[in-house]
Amino acid sequence: MIALLLSAGMAFLVALAGTPVLIRWLRAHGIGQQIREDGPEGHVTKAGTPTMGGVMIVGAAFLGYGFGHLRRATVFTRSGMLVLFAVMASGLVGLVDDWLKVSRQQSLGLTKRGKLAGQLAVAIAFALLAHNWAKASTMLSFTRYSSPGIDLGTVGWVIVAVLLIVGAANAVNLTDGLDGLAAGSAAFAFSAFVVIGFWQFRHRPIYHNAHALDLALIAAALVGACAGFLWWNAAPARIFMGDTGSIAIGTGLAALALLSDSILLLGVVGALFVLETLSVVIQVFAFRAFGRSAWPRSITISSSWAGRRRP
Questions:
Q1: Cα Rg for the chain, rounded, in angstroms?
Q2: pLDDT at 297 over 60
């Protein structure tokens, strides 16, 4: 328990103290958010707000995860390091996208194919390493490997893992439209995985997850990083996480679900992200089929448009 507090606390302090430093550096170098011309008028005022704040989330999580291992009882495991790798690699894909936006001074960075290719590369690498190196279970799981007890096999599990990672990364990316929404929601979601990991650690004979505590540590570090960043990202946001943060967060959630044998539970833990994505799909369909939004104008809150408007 102390290790979890150390991990979350250090990540929180790094993000809380480091984000304003990053804001000043980004402003000094003129790195600000580009807004789509066809976006809502209310978002025009956000143009120029520093972006790429996800760098601080990823960096704080990295330091927090390492700090949590100062306790003798904690050890680095392949699963924990693999989640960290996935978060950092996905963050790099998002960073390239964000950098192209600010360097070109437009709201479009990587092409859809380019971004998807980067996400697939990370997802496939993670899936293969998780199966062959971290020895992840190939069971379709809800709360543990034996529930519901369906073995997907190597190929099936790898396919599910890739789809889950790409889907979660894009779901969080779509949700990142309102100030503080993605960071705040992610903090709660990662908190659930802290509880899951610690519970599995305390009941190892039931869950058979030897890496559960380390997974709880990386989840705790991500909680602290998101919470510290949220202080500066809450409305009115002084910095945006950009694709650097949203894609990394989504990947981290999926990676934790896959390695903690809670694949099906991810839809419950990340219910907000699922609902936001469904809202986007419905709205896009409505616009293409009927030429108008599926929701009344007063209650249309989909952040896909905000996500496209902003990140």
A1: 19
A2: no
